[in-house]
Every structure is written in C-alpha cells, then in structure tokens.
Amino acid sequence: MASQFLKSAFVAALLSATAAPAWAVDLEFYFPVAVGGKAADTIESLTADYVKANPDVKIDAIYAGGYNDALSKAMTAARGGNPPQLSVLLSAEMFTLIDEDLIEPFDAYVSEDEKKSWFGAFYPAFMENSQTGGKTWGIPFQRSTPVMYWNKEAFKEAGLDPDHAPANWDELVEISKKLVKKDAAGNVTQWGVRIPSEGFPYWLFQGLSTPAGAILANADGNKTNFDDPKVIEATQFLVDLSKKYGVMQEGAIAWGPTPKAFFEREAAIVWTTTGNLTNMRENAPFDFGVGFLPKKERFGAPTGGGNFVLFKEASQEQKKAAVDFVKWITAPEQAAKWSMATGYVAPRADAWETDAMKQYVKDFPQAAVARDQLQYAVAELSTYENRKVTSILNDALSAAIAGEKTPQEALKEAQEKAEAILKNYR
Q1: Is 151 in contact with 259 (CB distance < 8 Å)?
Q2: What secondary structure letter does DSSP report for 308?
Q3: Is the pTM here over 0.85, yes or no?
Q4: Is the distance from CB of 286 to CB of 73 less than 8 angstroms?
Q5: Which domains does the chain have, with CATH numbers?
Q6: N or C, where is the chain less crowded by C-beta within 10 Å?
Q7: Can you tell me the distance from the alpha carbon of 156 to that of 179, in angstroms, rounded to the nearest whole number?
Q8: How much of the chain is helix, strand and coil, in % rounded to 5?
Q9: Consecutive sets of 10 residues in the chain, 426 residues long: mean pLDDT of each?
Q10: Considering all CA atoms of the chain, what is the largest pairwise distance in Å, rounded to the nearest integer?
C-alpha cells in the first residue's frame, strides 16, 4: 500500500513537472510606464518574442509608473534584498545609482569586440548619460529629446507660413505674438507658445540654457554652473515670454496636460518630448510640424529618457541572461519597432536603416526630427544626489517664474546650495 502510494506520488510529481515549464533563469525588470497603453503592449510583445526564442528564460516586466516611481520602487526593492535584475531607469540617475552601489557596468559581460560593435552602435549623445569612468553603466533604450510641435492650421489663420517654424529666439517671440488669440472680453483663448515648467522643468529649461551656450553640469557629475550668466539669460527669456512679451501664460505650466492643450488649441506651439510623437500623430485634429528647439547662440537640446541598468545583487546566471535580453531588445529591428510604436528615438543609427524604419520616416518625416537634433544635443542634467540637485534648480526656476526672485538671485542661491552638496564628491 505504501509503495503504491509512493509510486502514485512520484507519477503525479513527474506529470506536474512535465506540465509546468522549468525556467532555467527567472528575470524581473521594472519598466517606467503606467499599466496598459501602447508602450506596455509593445514591451509585452517584444518580451514574448524573446521568451519564445529563449524558452529557458522567464521575464516578468513590472510596470512601475513614471521614472521617479520606477526609481523609488527599484531602490526600495534593492535595499530590501529583493532587487529586480534589470530596470529601465532615467539615464540621468546614473551617478545616484553608482553612489548607492546598486548597479554594475555591462563591461564585464561583453567581449572587447562587443564593446566596440554594441556600445559603439549607439548615438554618442545618448552615451553621455550612459558612461563614466571608462565604464558603460546604462544601455540606451527609451530615449528622447524635447522637440517643438506647431499647429500648421493656426499658422495659416495668423497669416504665417505653416512650414516655417521659429528657428531662433527672436522668431519665437515674433511668431508667437501673431498666434495669440483673445475673445471679445480680452481673455486669451490661444497662447502663442507653451513651455511646461512643472513636471520636468530643468529638462525643458535645458532647451533654453543649451542654445544660450551654457552647460548646467560637468561630465563627472560633481559640479554645476547654475549661476553662469548664460543660464541667467535663458531664465530671463523664459520669464519674459510671459511677463514681457505676453505670448505664454503666466505662472507654472504643467507638463502632463501639454498634448491636450495642443489638441484643444490652447497653445499653437508647444515644447514636449519626442516620446509624445505617436500621441500627437494619432490625436492631433490638425496638421502639425515638428522642429528643433529654437537657437540663440546655437541649436541645442538635452537628451532624456531611460536606460537599461543591471542590478548588482543578481546572480551571475541572471546577469548573463539579462545582458543577452538587453542586446536583443536594443538590436536594430526591435529598436525600430519600439520607436515606431511610441515616438521615442531609436537610439542607434542602424535601426534607422531597417526597411520598416525607412518606410515609417518616408510616410511620417516628422519622426526623423529628434534623431537629426541629436547632433546638437547635450547630456541631461545629471549629478551625484541628482534628485536634490535638480530640485534645487527647479525651485530656482519656479521662484523666477513666480516673480519671487530675479533670475540672478534665484540662480546664485541655487548654485550655492548645489555646491554645498557636490563639493563632497570632488
């Protein structure tokens, strides 16, 4: 009786083991997107394709909200001894993650030839927030730059050339003046331009400070230049768009509603991420253009978006599998698929040479604008204790916009506060 029971139990266990997949490697990665939507659907599709080709690997993509949410959740999990093996996190957090000793570079898991062929395939502008100290700490994936969108119908109505976007600051002011609309009571119904100052204010501000000729922080992440006269000039121009020229609404302008404000003709020109490109294409009820951010001394914009990072506490098997997955998902065909689905910039030149991407750009040439702007791009503001430092700059910009301090006062104080933090890292 006992032997029959043991035999039955063995058969049941064998059948159970046969029925359930036996994963050799189980990976978990945090992804910065809200549940659902095209980005999540595309990640699920790409992940399923990889697992189908690699049945010994299981990958669980966890949608962790926005970039700040994803970073907080990943750091909390890591400190609690249960880190994801992989995550897409804001590229500007590289120094923070290194300082917290949470990630390790990809270099140990690729050959010398792959360092040239794989790392070298990505646009140099994206690698500025991916490499430091001779090591590669992040692999570009969900990458972006801010771009300018304009409503061609509104331009026509104002007697403007719908195919000519403002190319410099003077043109931005003059064109925006012609785009402002008011009702019979004198209330503005359409602003000329909208540059969000809440959400990621420092990032869009770099679309002004860079053309002004300023670099906000050094490449080592331990010194800022917030009180540079060119940074002050850029801040003054941002304030003047509302206070002096009357072409942009006064006060704080929210990041999130910007596409909706564009669709509803609350602003004829908006600055936002190229990551909104697909949203614009699918929902704008009018023809629109996409262009470089206007220049002052030069063209220029920050890079942005997320990199794949490799968490230190994963097992060697998990790390090797994670690196293999990252190689696959950032390869040209997959990078092109991701870019076309979302509007993010395919982060390597050979992705743009795929047949699918060539056809996409032929049908929708606006998609190539952010790629072409990369030649003028600089690294997104990134320092040690990055959240504190960017918060200091954000507060300074807010004070200047609100009229609580002059740009010079606000930025001098911001530089002193940032210096107090960063001098410890030099």
Answers
A1: no
A2: E
A3: yes
A4: no
A5: 22-144+304-378 (3.40.190.10), 146-302+385-425 (3.40.190.10)
A6: N
A7: 10
A8: 50, 20, 30
A9: 38 38 77 75 93 94 87 89 91 95 96 96 97 97 96 98 98 98 97 95 97 97 98 98 98 96 98 94 97 98 96 93 97 97 95 98 96 97 96 98 98 98 96
A10: 95
